[in-house]
Design goal:
Length: 92
């Protein structure tokens, strides 16, 4: 995936927020009325909405990045594997 330096910086900022939100979720006792997958998906949506995107391309890249991170944590059920997978794929 060819990203510009600005896009890499944008994704790194998004990743920092996403990691913090995942850590907060892991540290909280969650309600039994809502599934972990729903909470993780909501974290992704909230994180996407925290940022301003100058172009549709930036928004698409950010959305794909967040979806990859969310799907990775859901599938692996491991925060450590998610960090490793995201950082390898995006070169952080």
């Amino acid at each position: 995936m060819e990203l510009t330096e600005e896009q890499k910086i944008m994704l790194q900022r998004i990743w920092n927020v996403l990691k913090d939100k995942f850590i907060m979720f892991i540290g909280e006792t969650r309600s039994k009325d809502i599934s972990a997958i729903t909470v993780i998906s909501n974290i992704g949506s909230e994180t996407f909405n925290l940022f301003y995107y100058n172009t549709t391309e930036e928004a698409t890249i950010a959305k794909e990045f967040i979806e990859f991170a969310v799907n990775t944590i859901v599938v692996t059920k491991s925060f450590a594997q998610t960090i490793d997978g995201v950082e390898k794929k995006y070169g952080f």
